[in-house]
Amino acid sequence: xxxxxxxxxxxxxxxxxxxxxxxxxxxxxxxxxxxxxxxxxxxxxxxxxxxxxxxxxxxxxxxxxxxxxxxxxxxxxxxxxxxxxxxxxxxxxxxxxxxxxxxxxxxxxxxxxxxxxxxxxxxxxxxxxxxxxxxxxxxxxxxxxxxxxxxxxxxx
Length: 156
Hints:
Elements: E1 3-7, E2 17-27, E3 33-38, E4 44-45, E5 48-50, H1 57-69, E6 71-82, E7 87-91, E8 96-111, E9 119-125, H2 137-147, E10 154-155
Parallel strand pairs: 2-8, 6-10
Antiparallel strand pairs: 1-7, 2-5, 3-4, 3-9, 6-8, 7-8
């Protein structure tokens, strides 16, 4: 299944679902950020995904990072909430999603870096390299907020 992300695009299809999701900024010991190249869009993104009925939001981030990267993490903070109605994600199966994403900070506690079927590449990226990667505006916004070292989470 493929996906297309729209932002502030009047030609975007009308959403037909709202999904609660969590993502995580996971850094290695030298401050590089873990990113995945998504199989469904080819874009670089933070690991994360939709919340299940049995999840808490932090638990969703922990589960999604494990599923998508093979790493075990511990949540250490909150980057922010991202609920911009101008961001619409259209999937090839007909779902058109508005997403409510809560982005956490996390540290690695174990596991082995492993590519899942949701990504084609995983890599730790130095902050100075982020501008050279092809990623959606909303992912870049989360990374910017993280790198700003805000005292309070972004609420938007």
